[in-house]
What we know:
Elements: H1 2-16, H2 19-35, H3 44-66, H4 84-87, H5 96-101, H6 107-117, H7 123-130, H8 134-147, H9 156-172, H10 175-180, E1 182-191, E2 203-204, H11 206-221, E3 225-231, E4 234-241, E5 244-254, E6 257-264
Parallel strand pairs: 1-6
Antiparallel strand pairs: 1-2, 3-4, 4-5, 5-6
Helix pairs in contact: 1-2, 1-3, 2-3, 6-8, 7-8
Amino acid sequence: xxxxxxxxxxxxxxxxxxxxxxxxxxxxxxxxxxxxxxxxxxxxxxxxxxxxxxxxxxxxxxxxxxxxxxxxxxxxxxxxxxxxxxxxxxxxxxxxxxxxxxxxxxxxxxxxxxxxxxxxxxxxxxxxxxxxxxxxxxxxxxxxxxxxxxxxxxxxxxxxxxxxxxxxxxxxxxxxxxxxxxxxxxxxxxxxxxxxxxxxxxxxxxxxxxxxxxxxxxxxxxxxxxxxxxxxxxxxxxxxxxxxxxxxxxxxxxxxxxxxxxxxxxxxxxxxxxxx
Length: 276
């Protein structure tokens, strides 16, 4: 039953982009299951999957309304993917860049895409879980794939080496070398949630991003303890101040350049990242 709970949490997390909310949704589903007529439940696993996904869809709709008053940019909550606990379910955790892109979709589109791409459901199963027709499932998936444009990701060594090079050029204050690490349409997004300092709007373009990255490093990140980690299958720098995790900086890499960089500074979104 614990194995099922963990899988259900990942279903909900991929829909919500929040691990804490996902755990609440799963707990709510278990309470509803206990209160239900057990004799009427033919397939407990299917029953729980269906309930969790539908509860997560409803919660996502509420979340999107609440986000209208969110201070600054909203980013998904990151999860470590290089720990013993995550290795069993690693393939079900979507990449961070994809989690960000999924915010373009409505909750049902997102659920169809996740069931197909992360959990390898066929359209008959998706239709059964979501209460839609097989034809509708296929159409929703097709629209979702059209809306989501992703680029190929290089192997982990290339990504790791690029981040190490990034750290080196920042230390050397080599702006020209830093520019060469960035894609021409690079963007940087920061999420402080009104609880930590963050820039309110995304920053785009090589010149602006170079100045931002070097400036942030010079103003404080050069004094913080940092370590390289893997978050949602992407390289990240974890920054600590007095043993307190203050920032998760996630890098989206294609070929040998950074496409996007995300700064998660909202302390409420640190729960999925190990702090030791």
